[in-house]
Design goal:
7-stranded mixed beta sheet, 14 helices, 418 residues, alpha/beta, single chain, 2 domains
Length: 418
């Protein structure tokens, strides 16, 4: 591979794909006697050594609880975690670090939003609008909020090509719409949604707009102020960070107006048996001891990604997507699920009558890791009338050789299973 990820810091050298791959120790291992070809990045990305080191360094040198201690270890841990919050703030271009809430992931963030915001703001007759391509994490919490409040969950349709029917979505918006919650990039279809247009349309009827950024955050630069998103959620483990970490971003005015969802330590100012006074942002949403090591390492992961060039990342991803699509289209019986021209990350497909699990099992024997199943988008699978798909999903360390291995593996599986 000749492409380099250009670094904007002159002191650091350019990184080729080979350099990037060497930063991720797991990519050096073998699976079933073959070099690992990891193409399940939509489920979780691998971790660079600097992230692994950040976790070990915390537990080895300054393991202590945060915010409440006066001793040196606690102050060091607090400073490191709050520095990570500031890193996230700059990464998203949020106005203030108070708008950055640490969570355990996208699911946790959406549940905080749907319950804390929903309980206060939704009532019978109000509407929440989502789409057919949503992950279960952006369906079930809103179903729960609507069941609790009497609000109605509305669903915008997806076209056969795997794009949101924007005319239909606009027709569903009204003064009854209180929240529009849509995925930025589909985890199953790879579709990049026109979120700027959706946000504008939602705001025109007075609705707030939340974006599920789990599949977008590692593939494109996200500027929440430029988007004018009211809320944005993502998971650390899809961004080269640890599992059990994530972010709920919200505009300060909305977060201030929301009651806390969880009660306990840290989210309080004063507690008496008669009344509790809640803490300021962001802490009123962060009850209990957080994932300190994970939150610190999330900042390290973001620093790592921020040292690369977004244009080069996108160019490389497009190259891999195009070569994969070209190769798959040469296979007899191929069925691509989702054909949006604006795509990122993932490709879902079926071949003839071969069950996706069978295809995935053969690929695993060849050392190729892909995801099979409904990808937590069962309603979308029902729409297409299929039990699931084989999904390959790319990241910064994947190479053209990985694509070649995948295509050869699919061909071999077809020969064995047809």
């Amino acid at each position: 591979m000749n492409i380099s990820y250009l670094n904007t810091e002159p002191a650091r050298s350019l990184k080729s794909i080979e350099d990037i791959r060497h930063d991720f120790p797991i990519l050096q291992r073998e699976v079933n006697g073959r070099p690992l070809v990891y193409l399940d990045n939509g489920a979780s990305t691998q971790k660079p050594q600097v992230v692994i080191d950040a976790i070990a360094h915390y537990y080895s040198y300054y393991n202590a609880n945060v915010h409440r201690g006066v001793h040196a270890l606690s102050q060091e841990a607090t400073a490191a975690m709050e520095a990570s919050r500031l890193t996230v703030k700059h990464f998203l271009n949020a106005r203030d670090e108070k708008e950055i809430i640490f969570t355990s992931g996208t699911t946790h963030g959406i549940n905080i939003l749907s319950q804390a915001w929903g309980r206060k703001n939704l009532k019978a007759g109000d509407e929440v609008l989502i789409t057919e391509m949503e992950h279960h994490s952006n369906i079930v919490p809103w179903q729960m909020a609507c069941e609790l409040t009497g609000a109605v969950l509305k669903v915008a349709l997806v076209t056969e090509d795997g794009e949101i029917d924007m005319e239909g979505l606009r027709s569903m918006l009204s003064e009854r719409t209180k929240m529009v919650s849509v995925v930025h990039v589909s985890n199953t279809l790879g579709t990049i949604n026109p979120v700027e247009e959706i946000i504008k349309a939602g705001h025109e009827v007075g609705a707030l707009v939340h974006l599920d950024g789990a599949q977008a955050i590692a593939h494109m630069k996200v500027d929440v102020q430029a988007l004018d998103a009211d809320f944005y959620t993502f998971s650390g483990h899809k961004l080269f960070g640890p599992t059990g970490t994530g972010i709920l971003y919200g505009k300060e005015k909305h977060l201030e107006a929301m009651p806390p969802l969880f009660g306990g330590g840290e989210m309080i100012k004063t507690v008496t048996f008669e009344k509790t006074t809640y803490n300021d942002l962001p802490f009123k949403f962060e009850a209990g001891t957080p994932n300190i090591a994970g939150n610190i390492a999330l900042g390290t992961a973001i620093d790592y990604l921020s040292g690369l060039d977004w244009k080069a990342i996108r160019a490389h991803e497009v190259l891999l997507l195009d070569r994969t699509l070209d190769g798959l289209n040469q296979i007899e019986g191929i069925r691509l699920i989702g054909r949006s021209e604006k795509r990122s990350g993932a490709i879902s497909f079926l071949v003839g009558t071969i069950h996706p699990f069978d295809m995935g099992t053969i690929l695993d024997k060849l050392g190729i890791a892909v995801r099979t199943g409904h990808h937590c988008t069962e309603p979308l699978m029902d729409k297409y009338g299929i039990p699931g798909t084989v999904r390959t999903s790319f990241s910064i360390y994947n190479s053209e050789e990985d694509v070649n291995s995948l295509l050869a593996g699919v061909q071999k599986a077809v020969q064995m299973l047809s």
